[in-house]
Amino acid sequence: MSAASPLDEQNDRHAPLSSPEIVVCPNGPLLVRGDFTIAAANGGKIPRRRRTVALCRCGASGIKPYCDGTHKLIGFRTKPDTENAV
Ligand code: FES
């Protein structure tokens, strides 16, 4: 993932809260936006600084549960038929 500019982060912080939405990115992470919390296996809250986050699903990120872009380096591929609505 590319780094967000300070202006992007400022706009994100001031965006109104909304119902959670998850976007499945082909060959990449799950984008989660809206009002939600991320819970660790022990029940604790995983901190986040942005309302929209990218969650790793390739398993190779160095900052799990977040995506750090490593999926591109390892050539992570998903099945196209799992990315589209039915
Ligand atoms: S999906 Fe991006 S690093 Fe795993």
Automatic annotation (TrEMBL):
The keyword Coiled coil does not apply. It comes from the Bacteria. Pfam families: zf-CDGSH. The keyword Iron applies. Residues 45-77 form the Iron-binding zinc finger CDGSH type domain. One of its GO terms (cellular component) is cytoplasm. One of its GO terms (molecular function) is 2 iron, 2 sulfur cluster binding. InterPro entries: FeS-contain_CDGSH-typ (IPR018967), MitoNEET_CISD (IPR042216). Residues 1-20 are annotated as: Disordered. Keywords: 2Fe-2S, Iron, Iron-sulfur, Metal-binding. This is CDGSH iron-sulfur domain-containing protein. It comes from Arthrobacter psychrolactophilus.
